[in-house]
Design a protein that fits this description.
This protein is of the alpha/beta class. The protein has one domain: Molybdenum Cofactor Biosythetic Enzyme, Chain A. Strands 2-1-3-6-5-4 form a 6-stranded mixed sheet, sandwiched between helices. The chain is globular, with a radius of gyration of 14 Å.
């Protein structure tokens, strides 16, 4: 749903891969998302961090000049999957519709074990998606369609 007042913004996107096993060499998910967003003309930076609540929040607050954060990984049922729980502690709003839409477009039952989510903190957008590279195929079109409108909504008075 676009509004006539919506604009396209020069957004800075920070991709944070949350994994205790991935390196720059094998971070297919983060690189894939980066390539797609850069193809849209967005400024993108990326990092890999461990599955650790402190690291997850550090990645947010130490990159506060970014407008959009996309956390890839740590959304599943494993005891090490703490991305969503960590972000939820600082979020001002949670928009559950993103996760519902993500899971419904994923097909099958197993995606419903994922806690894909969308949060806001002031004017910052925080997406949390699964770490599999296939999740980018589902999440990217959703993110692409909503980031500019959501940014408009978060900054308007």
């Amino acid at each position: 749903m676009a509004h006539k007042t919506d604009d396209f913004y020069s957004l800075k996107v920070r991709i944070v891969t949350v994994s205790s096993t991935r390196s720059e060499m094998d971070d297919i998910t983060g690189k894939k998302m980066q390539n797609l967003l850069e193809g849209d003309g967005l400024e993108v930076s990326r990092e890999i961090i461990k599955d650790d609540p402190t690291e997850i929040l550090r990645a947010f607050f130490c990159n506060f000049n970014s407008d959009v954060f996309i956390y890839c990984g740590g959304t599943g049922p494993s005891k090490n999957d703490v991305t969503v729980q960590s972000v939820r502690k600082i979020a001002e709003k949670e928009m559950s519709g993103f996760g519902e839409l993500f899971r419904s477009r994923s097909g099958g039952i197993l995606p419903y074990l994922s806690n894909a989510s969308l949060f806001s903190y002031g004017p910052k957008e925080i997406f949390c998606i699964p770490g599999s590279s296939q999740s980018v195929d589902i999440a990217y079109p959703l993110i692409r369609e909503m980031i500019h409108h959501l940014h408009h909504e978060l900054i308007k008075e």
